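This section describes the prediction task in plain terms. A model, or a person checking by hand, is given the sequence of a single protein chain and must write out its three-dimensional structure as a string of tokens. No templates, partner chains or ligands are provided. The sample shown here is typical of the held-out split.
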Amino acid sequence: MAISVELIKKLREATGSGILDVREALENSEGDFDKAVDYLRQKGLAKAAKRSDRDASEGIIELYSHGDGRVGVMVEVNCETDFVARSEEFREFAHEVALQIAAAAPKWVKADQIPEDVIEHEKEIARARYKEEGKPDNIIEKILEGMVEKFKSESCLLEQTYIRNEDLTIQELLHEKIASIGENIVIRRFERWERGESID
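The expected answer:
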């Protein structure tokens, strides 16, 4: 099947992928643009998984202030080389992560950082509420499983839905950047402050 230059150009602009990858994706999807995008995303996730164990100690500390100084964010995003750390694409990604933190107020980077006692506390509150409502114990335990997953998806940066695209989580956005940039990238840590939050 002949793939038009216009379609190749459009897909390259949309995904940031190389010309050979774009052509392969379009050929595999028989010229279907959306299927080609999915193909490239899957390929990117596979590449990202291979790079995830490589050391990432370069990078940037991104600072962001929102709402005329109402919310402040500091986030450390690491990569493998100083060359990538200085690139516009990497810096834009770090800025997007800071915006996400400011807007969605996560508490942890990933789910395994949540202390077990925090999860147990959330479960106890919910369990007491559902018991009061008269729900049976076996139903309560099933509800609690879903509640814990929801809590993680709201509280953990990597599991949150990306504020600019509801079809992506931050984890998926990160994997796309790893595939696009070609280096391992790690969102190491962050702090978020909101004016007046520590005042009783």
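For orientation: The first strand starts at residue 58 and ends at 66.
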